[in-house]
Amino acid sequence: MRLRSRNILLAAAVAAPVMLFTLSRMTAQAPQTPGQRPTPAQRPSWTVGSQGPLPEHAKFTPLQAENGGALFIQNCAFCHGKDAGGGETGPDLTRSKLVTGDKNGEAIGAVIRNGRLDKGMPRFSLSDTEILNLVAFIHTQQDASMSQSGNRRGVDESDLHTGNAEAGKKYFEGPGGCTQCHSATGDLAGIASKFSGLRLEMQMLYPRDAKTKATVKTKSGQTFAGTVEYEDEFTLGIRDSSGIYHSWPMTAITAKLDKPVEAHVTAMSKYTDDDIHNVLAYIQTLK
Amino acid sequence: MNWKKSARVLTLAAAATATTGLNAQNVDSAMLKNPPRDSWLGYHGDYSGRRHSALTEINTRNVSGLSLGWAFQTQQNGVLKATPILADGILYFTLPDHVWAIDARSGHQLWHYAAPQTKAFHIGQRGVSILKDKLYYMTSDAHLQALDAKTGNVLWDVEVADSKKGQWATMSPLIVGNHVLVGASGDFDNLQGFLRAVDPDTGKTQWTFYSTPTVDTPRVAYSGNMWMTGTYDPDLNLIYFGTGNPSPVLNGKVRPGDNLYTCTILALDPETGKLVWHFQPSPHDTHDWDAVEIPVLADGVFEGKPRKMLMQASRNGYFFVIDRTNGKNLLTTTFGPVNWTKGVDKDGRPIPNPDKEPAPDGRLIAPDEGGMTNYRSPSFDPKTGLFIVSASPSYSLYFNKPADGAYGWAGADYGLWSKGVLDAIDYKTGKIRWSHELGQRAGSGVLTTEGGLTFTGDSTGNFLALDTATGKTLWHAGAGGQIASSPISYELDGHQYILTSGGNVMFAWRLPEAPAAPAAKRTPTAATTK
């Protein structure tokens, strides 16, 4: 029971940030010519604030940020880095669009409270004050990071522009086998407007949010169809087209699962790094 | 302070137990070498690291009837990663900044020690160790504290590493003879990894072994932290510890060569800390793949000859069998997809592929940074010759560019995909005899028993008991939380218990007491008559 309701919560928590992310990503990034890596001379000179306009958010006191910093070291720094710039497993929060879009903890707080269990982030039971202090610290770190001059560490979109779009198109249509499921003018049309940079590359390599479809037949002969929300050795949970969640013991049903995303796992065992960069260059043209 | 109050109240409870205690156990060197059935005296239970119990009351025929004896709610934030230890009918286990003593028969709390809050990382605490009347506890800010086992009172406190520089601690100390062996974590900074022997009575340092040169030495690796409990062979009188990854972590260019002794299995003399032999699972690591995973000790026949072996399923995706008398490699194989090497050298070490070092535009790497396995204990089952490990086949992207610098992490990596599977590896061939799907990456360690059972957990919080011979599920129960520790087993009053944790709750499992017990059952059990 607990696990089921957790998954429902999670789905809600994940959906909202993705929307935010997409919107701000579109406005914050200058378009790049695909397949062409900017030379140092072409790069804009990095000045204060040149990492993008400083995000707008509530004002926090230095004490809030300091207290948040102590909590951050205890609870968050192992994964997200001591300065929130990325650590073991956890992403660089100073480059997070969710953080950029957050005004006063409404988005960051939700992630802290609910966790992102599908990505390995646990939920944290902290008081409202503690969460706001963490929010203050994270915003302060992002502001500092976006204000810095000089080349910034971490992954920049321009770092990823090393591939050849034409070779990528060939791989996409040929040995990659991508066209078995995808079409540049169909499901992927405009994908590079929706995602960019590292997010686009990760989405390309493994679209984490892709749903598994299930057709379930119960012992009494009823049939259900929907997307898989929960699956373990003993229980299957699906959401049907009207949004209702159903679950059964595996022993009580026969289920047919359709997991097209598994083709991406197979692809990862075949790709060379050049293939990846070439296909990314090609995907980047699908604006 | 809170803890003082609870400690005062609970001293009474501890005293009460002591008076009803049967035969008091004196946990000394001899007992640590031969732990009795009604104990689990250190992180691994015994010195071998096999996490294998000789108990057979719970077995393949009756495990389906396993039921809850008790559950203990810690009521704290965090997920239990500790292995409880058991001595004298009392269980001791931890969360960061917390130690509990509870009655192993009932789950009743005897005392609770809440350490002062520190600013160090609180990513986990793996448990306390015991020698005679003292417990040894590593604080999150890398101090070693000796606690009075009866009360939880702090007897002394010594700094093992300076947490202000960036090290922290999670480790359950290994106790060998008159030495408490401790290390720390900390690859977010360029610091020297070490193993230190501390006097159990006074806390004084006896010796220190450093994994790397001092941090003012140019163009070498630092770190190589020893943050997991090692193992010990009393006959050879050697201790075995794995060292952590080098730092700067993802930038290998500034530290050419093998980077000894990072990502290395060390055999040390416990009296002096002198290095006797070493074997390096990951020469020149650039992917954060510590080689601290449990060095499991077992004796058996290998290629027709009786061997004293050391086995490690390493975070880098390789499984090694080594002759533990001299460090010579017997077998090297992978236990999942691995794409970062150009093969294996004549000494059985993987050869890292320079093209798979983190790069500005990213490199696709298998496994991911969490590794094919991690700190959770594997188990070795002597009867089947199976080394059973919770594995995570996985892919990720690794980045490093000049702007990332040469300090600490020095790069970025992003996991793409992973799953969880329990692999049973035949040590003689390195082949996987069976695999059991665990969903996504699972966090539970593994216990095998002489009753033919393998206990572990899946990624969604199900405790599992499998048939060790086949990998088939014989029993399961929902934990309602993340399983992140390794199970243990012991016998009390003639009955076997299995201990597992889910979330911040400890669960004790046993067979139900049959109202009309068959003649074979012992009568009456003391579980409810304390």
Plain-language structure description:
The complex is a heterodimer of chains A (287) and B (530). Chain A is α+β, with helices and mostly antiparallel strands and 287 residues long. Chain A has three domains: 2-27 and 55-154, Cytochrome c-like domain (Cytochrome Bc1 Complex, Chain D, domain 2, Orthogonal Bundle); 158-208 and 263-283, no CATH class; 213-259, SH3 type barrels, CATH 2.30.30.100. Chain A has eleven helices and five strands. In chain A, strands 4-3-2-1-5 form a five-stranded antiparallel beta sheet. In chain A, a hairpin with a 4-residue loop joins strand 1 (213-218) and strand 2 (223-231). Chain A is flat, with a radius of gyration of 21 Å. Residues 1-50 of chain A have low confidence and may be disordered. Chain B is mainly β. Chain B has a single domain (2-510), classed as 8 Propeller (Methanol Dehydrogenase, Chain A), CATH 2.140.10.10. Chain B has a five-stranded mixed beta sheet, with no helix packed on it. In chain B, strands 2-40-39-38 form a four-stranded antiparallel beta sheet, with no helix packed on it. In chain B, a hairpin with a 5-residue loop joins strand 9 and strand 10 (154-159). The interface between A and B is large, with 52 and 54 residues.
Distance between the termini of chain B: 31 Å
> For the record, what CATH class of chain B applies?
Mainly Beta
Largest interface: A-B, 52 and 54 residues
At the fourth level of CATH, the homologous superfamily of chain B is Quinoprotein alcohol dehydrogenase-like superfamily
Number of domains of chain B: 1
Computed Rg of chain A: 21 Å
* Strand adjacency order, main sheet of chain B: 1-34-35-36-37
Which band does the percent of strand residues of chain B land in?
Answer: 35-45%
Strand content of chain A: 5-15%
Named at the architecture level, the CATH assignment of the largest domain in chain A is Orthogonal Bundle
Label the CATH architecture of chain B. 8 Propeller
Low-confidence stretches of chain A: 1-50
The biggest beta sheet of chain A reads:
5 strands, antiparallel
Count of individual helical segments of chain B: 2
Our count of helices of chain A gives 11
The largest sheet of chain B is: 5 strands, mixed
Span of the ends, CA to CA of chain A: 43 Å
Q: What is the assigned CATH homologous superfamily of the largest domain in chain A?
A: Cytochrome c-like domain
